[in-house]
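Q: What changes when adenosine monophosphate is included in the input?
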Amino acid sequence: MSILVVGSVAFDALQTPFGKVDKCIGGSATYFSVAASFFSEVDLVAVVGDDFTDEHLSVFQGRRINLDGLQRVPGEKTFFWSGEYGFDLNVAKTRDTQLNVFASFKPELKESHRAPDVLFLANIQPELQMQVLEQCKRPRLVALDTMNLWINVAKEALTRIISKVDLVVINEAEVRQFTEEANLVKGARQILALGPKTLVVKRGEYGVMMITPDAVFVAPAYPLENVFDPTGAGDTFAGGLLGYLASRSEITDRELRRGIVFGSVLASFTVEKFSLDRLREITLRDVQERYADFKALTHFEDAGD
Ligand code: AMP
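A: The predicted holo structure follows.
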């Protein structure tokens, strides 16, 4: 089963209360692809400048990630994001966003990319997300992520694309910002009313809430003692969730719940180090072990009498 992702491949500058890095590999599609490749083949569609060298590309090597759709544009610079966190690691403060090579990017999907099984529109301009969706034969599942910037500057385009997808992955604060509704469950229902069948709300260290027309499922975040840098947690989560779903023959409530836990497990590794450093060290076995811990962590018995 194949999964196609479009999103950012980036350089990030990060500051957390525990450390600082001036330039490291980041990007929504980068974290997503590496996480999803634990479960499925991934086709990555994105653009970088010629400052993104072969050495940087090694982040994708040795994994089931096809880079045919990754363009490198001579004379241009790679997307750059600078972010900062205080002791509340759930809130990222953007210091700078430079679209660079993404400012003039017009995604042209190759013929071989036009019929993905699962399509993930990772965080990027909503207009680009729409251009990619329009070029695809309807996939089995289309999912999208976004961020506060696009709610601020491109809300109409974002509303249009949300109405065309099956599943939305979004932060708690973004649900409130997008819907202007304080109550999360009511806000989630407003987004579902636009068209998606499933909403997955990321709540940082408090975990995840999934809302569908018929069910609500909540999962905690893995209780880590050392959270170093939360950057990429959301994209890694989405990669684990969608990568897992793409590997299953049916997408049921049961599989969605498993996918949410796999996503949470992968995200819990990402936040242990800067950039993709921790994600690059682990194996599927580490993921499966932490999945089992997760089950133990959340298990409780029937009430009895
Ligand atoms: P998250 O998983 O939400 O922490 O996303 C972190 C990644 O998103 C960083 O590595 C950034 O490079 C990337 N990013 C930040 N702002 C944007 C944006 N406006 N569009 C696309 N990607 C972004």
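Observations recorded in class: The mean pLDDT is 96.
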